[in-house]
Design a protein that fits this description.
heterotrimer, A: 396 residues, alpha+beta, 3-stranded antiparallel sheet, 9 strands, 51% helix, C: 204 residues, Alpha-Beta Plaits, 3-stranded mixed sheet, 8 helices
Chain lengths: 396, 359, 204
């Protein structure tokens, strides 16, 4: 009845889902204009976690950047380490030994499992399924125990070096991995039983956050979100790096790009990553893990304690930094969220001239208004969860 | 006359002490511990007195002390009267509901008929529904008077949800009332002496629908959208702290117990043990004389009733921690498009069966 | 394969289909009637959590082999987690048997520290041996990365496995001086052997 509605004074309500809000994990601000419960407009504000990563890189040497890269995507830190190391190695033009490549693959995949578990768990938590969250957190603890056994810290790993790794696999790693994966698979099945066919969950996440494939590519989506839209793009398959071309794994693809597809793609990727780690552990060749180039890689302690030339190289590379030839390089690895790219510019000195990171979740967050117009406010929760915006990566 | 007075006072004291003194604090402990054990962890168990942590049972006491000493604030510009009144409106119906739930049968004690229910109203179950309707006011008032966007959204969602589910709840009950032919809860309880006459066998669909509606009325997961933690920071009680906040919580917990009580009375045989009739129970205790036997039978009845109530509390807690929550429009759709038609079908089929077969 | 062909993008041109091996996730969960009724999946979910509940309750009374209880919690501080040898705790300075520090104040750890936590003032002794006059490690800046241990040419700085007692109420107490950082060589012997093993020649 239009006459009645003309006299009703209605106005939109602007709500600030501010930087600290239970659902915006990763500090981000949404300015939501609501008409009742329907979203009229959504504005995204990022940058609350900007710490000046790129500027910090310019003030330290090439090797000092590794702890900074840990803190980019802090849920899967080893992938950032590997990406940066591969980019610098491409700039220099060196190739690492085989064993190092296999161990880097193992480290990347363990981090990817941890990231996907965190994301699915947080998705369950936001939707109210607390128990699914805690089961995956328990599984993630086991993965973190493996990473701690490997390099000494659970999250800020600082494991990869330019031209090799910090240390080799510890004793008993393969057995411990077997045990941990057994328990992880049991918990995966439990969470699958709790969530995947649960109609309450399906109703929340299906047909919410759809994205047609061509629009997704136009926005710059990569990673699980793009694969959920049906585009089979995976950096590990398209431009294989390390030893991924020898690994046997499948790439899960969704169909419409809604949240349910993203959830299913991530759950399947956990399985595939576990399979990759087991293959790599079986095929691991013996041999060295570092290149023997004193110009670019700190030498062994045996040499430093006894030989004067090693000591001199050591002092030069630590204080002045390694000196890659002048030039620029871009290298992309498959991060947990998508294509994580490093663009490095070197001017021949020991400090990077520029170190830019292409964050995979930046285009995903930018697409939030497009996904959310016309939806209910309760739809922000699963959509933003499944995008997996990590504050450290988006804001650097 | 005096005996009646003593009886009433004893029953009121008993129910209040069990409710407010036992169930309300214990349910907080149960929620923490049960969810913890389900999730592979130990719950909160550090609160101790002199080094004795009794499985964390001192935590409710610690909570009480914390709540009483917290600052009680009212947001600037809020409506003071309604802000303070709303928790009471939420809490009182939950407590008063217990006055019509029978926790035992009728016994002959010292030459006096004892009916283990505080108020044996003729309209039994309707009284419960009337009270839960009042609880809606508390939620809406708290959402409105807090002068905050989040509270307002929570309060509006709650009003729509609670109203719709009251309608559905009323209709789901009609089946069981038709079968038993009475609104008095004591009569319904007494008629379930035979194990095969328990409500769950006579009205399985009614049980499921009523359970769903009752959980939705109580705003517990999976229907806890009014207080959805992750969307609206705490929904309609965002701007409450201290004693008023605890009153909302206590209202919720006490309503869990009330719902369990009603479910037990209507569907699960109230105070009866399966395959044991009242006569057999009394004859079992003949060694203590007629009064003693009545007392023992009374105690057994009360224990059975509360055991079943505890089972339903456990079930509701498990459901809360297992399932994700609905979206707002899906809750409405569930009520109006699924539960309501199903309850009408239930009524029709029950009526047909009663008419054609049971004659 | 038809669906995939239609959704080709320039990013996947050139990737042979055999190498790509896409796997379609089971998208069309045509919910059977069994699943459309919420009830049965809810019962399955309750079964999963009740199974965990029952195992853990029994595990409180009858613990499984080798563990104290069936739940995942480690009851800190009464029980502690066993740390792997690779664990990076607080950096400490190594002290020789006669009480002097092994550090020669070369300044490598100061240069490599990504958080600029270390400040060294070097000096010489009478026998022209260098030693640090003052070695200040600012714990408010240390990120426990392990670089100082990795570059030290004298095994003078190692990452111990201490993780307790690192919290203070006053920030000025957190700038640890040389005396607070010294530990005897005996107490960090395990760590020194570990770093000799991992940074040995066989890795190159």
């Amino acid at each position: 009845m239009p006459d009645i509605e003309k006299d009703l004074h209605t106005e939109y309500m602007v709500i600030n889902m501010g930087p600290s809000h239970p659902v915006t994990h990763g500090t981000v601000k949404f300015l939501v204009t609501l008409d009742g419960e329907t979203i009229e407009d959504l504005q995204v504000d990022i940058g609350y976690l900007h710490r000046g990563f790129e500027k910090m890189c310019e003030s330290g040497t090439w090797q000092q950047v590794f702890p900074y890269t840990d803190r980019l995507n802090y849920v899967s830190p080893l992938i950032n380490n590997v990406g940066y190391a591969l980019a610098v190695e491409k700039l220099i033009g060196i190739d690492v030994p085989e064993r190092c490549k296999y161990i880097r693959v193992i480290a990347s995949e363990l981090s990817r499992i941890a990231d996907h578990m965190t994301n699915v768990a947080a998705g369950g938590l936001e939707l109210g399924a607390f128990t699914a969250f805690l089961y995956f957190v328990e599984a993630r603890e086991l993965i973190w125990d493996l990473i701690e056994m490997l390099c000494g810290a659970r999250v800020t790993a600082n494991y990869v070096r330019i031209g090799g790794l910090k240390n080799d696999l510890p004793d008993g790693f393969k057995e411990k991995t077997g045990e941990a994966f057994k328990r992880c698979r049991t918990l995966w099945k439990d969470v699958n039983k709790l969530l995947t066919k649960n109609r309450i969950f399906i109703d929340r996440v299906r047909d919410v956050g759809n994205m047609p494939a061509d629009e997704a590519i136009a926005y710059g989506f990569t990673g699980p979100c793009l694969r959920a839209c049906g585009v089979p793009y995976d950096v590990r398959k398209a431009n294989p790096y390390l030893v991924y071309d020898r690994m046997d794994f499948e790439v899960p693809i969704g169909e419409t790009g809604d949240n349910f597809d993203k959830y299913l793609v991530r759950m399947e990727e956990i399985n595939q990553s576990m399979h990759i780690v087991e293959q790599a552990l079986n095929e691991l060749p013996a041999g060295p893990i570092n290149v023997d180039m004193p110009y670019y890689r700190w030498q062994s302690k045996d040499d430093i304690y006894t030989r004067i030339d090693s000591l001199i190289f050591h002092f030069k590379t630590v204080i002045e930094g390694i000196k890659p030839p002048a030039g620029e390089v871009y290298l992309a690895v498959e991060g947990a969220n998508g294509e994580l790219g490093f663009y490095l510019v070197s001017d021949g000195t020991g400090k990077p001239y520029k170190c830019r990171v292409r964050p995979p979740c930046f285009p995903l967050t930018a697409a939030m208004p497009r996904l959310m117009k016309g939806r209910l406010i309760a739809d922000i929760v699963p959509t933003f969860d499944m995008i997996n915006m990590i504050g450290g990566e988006c804001d650097r | 006359m005096v005996a009646d007075l003593i009886e009433s006072v004893a029953k009121i004291l008993f129910i209040f002490s069990v409710n407010l003194g036992f169930f309300a604090p214990i349910l907080g402990w149960v929620e923490r511990k049960q969810s913890a054990v389900m999730q592979d962890r130990i719950g909160a168990n550090r609160a101790n007195i002199g080094g004795f942590t009794v499985l964390g049972l001192f935590h409710p006491i610690a909570d009480a002390i914390k709540v009483l000493t917290k600052e009680d604030f009212i947001p600037a510009g809020a409506n003071k009267f309604f802000h303070t009144l709303a928790p009471f409106i939420c809490l009182v119906p939950a407590i008063v509901t217990f006055s019509v739930i029978p926790f035992g049968g009728r016994y002959q004690l010292f030459g006096h008929h004892v009916n283990l229910v505080i108020a044996d109203l003729d309209v039994g179950i309707l009284f419960v529904f009337a009270l839960t309707s009042l609880a809606t006011y508390g939620v809406v008032l708290s959402g409105w008077s807090s002068r905050s966007n989040w509270s307002l959204l929570g309060g509006l969602r709650a009003s729509a949800q609670m109203l719709s589910y009251e309608v559905a709840m009323g209709l789901t009950i009609i089946g069981i009332i038709m079968v038993f032919g009475s609104l008095k809860l004591t009569d319904i309880g007494a008629m379930q002496e035979n194990f095969l006459h328990w409500g769950i066998f006579l009205q399985p669909l009614g049980f499921i629908l009523f359970f769903t509606c009752a959980v939705a009325e109580n705003k517990r997961a999976p229907f806890d959208i009014p207080e959805a933690e992750s969307e609206l920071v705490a929904g309609y009680f965002t701007e409450y702290s201290g004693l008023k906040f605890v009153m909302f919580w206590m209202g919720e917990f006490l309503e869990i117990v009330a719902i369990s009580g009603i479910l037990t009375t209507l569907f699960f045989g109230a105070w009866h043990i399966p395959f044991v009739t009242d006569q057999r129970l009394l004859s079992l205790f003949q060694f203590a004389g007629p009064n003693g036997a009545a007392v023992l039978a009374m105690l057994v009845g009360i224990a059975t009733f509360f055991a079943k109530v505890i089972f339903f509390i456990w079930l509701q807690m498990t459901i809360r921690w297992t399932l994700p929550r609905f979206r707002y429009d899906q809750v409405m759709r569930l009520c109006w498009k699924m539960i309501l038609p199903l309850s009408l079908i239930n009524i029709t089929i029950t009526g047909l069966v009663l008419l054609l077969w049971i004659k | 394969m038809t669906q995939l062909d239609r959704k080709e993008s320039h990013a996947t041109v050139g990737v042979p289909a055999g190498r790509l091996r896409p796997k379609r996730v089971r998208r069309n969960l045509d919910l059977t009637l069994w699943e459309k009724l919420y009830l049965f999946e809810i019962i399955r979910g309750i079964y999963v959590t009740t199974k965990h509940f029952a195992f853990n309750m029994i595990g409180f009374v009858v613990p499984p082999r080798g563990k104290k209880r069936s739940v995942f919690t480690v009851y800190y501080p009464e029980e502690k987690v066993t740390l792997p040898p690779a664990y990076r705790g607080r950096p400490v300075l190594v002290m020789r048997a006669d009480g002097t520090e092994k550090c020669v104040a070369c300044g490598l750890c100061e240069k490599i520290c990504p958080g600029h936590a270390i400040s060294i003032v070097g000096g010489e002794r009478e026998n022209s041996e260098r030693y640090p006059l003052s070695y200040v490690l600012d714990m408010t800046r240390c990120v426990y990365c392990g670089f100082c241990e990795e570059v030290c040419p004298k095994e003078a700085v190692v990452m111990s496995s201490e993780y307790q007692g690192l919290a203070e109420t006053d920030r000025s107490n957190l700038r640890y001086s040389k005396e607070q950082l010294l530990r005897s060589e005996e107490s960090v012997k395990g760590r020194i052997e570990y770093i000799r093993r991992i940074y040995s020649k066989c890795n190159y």
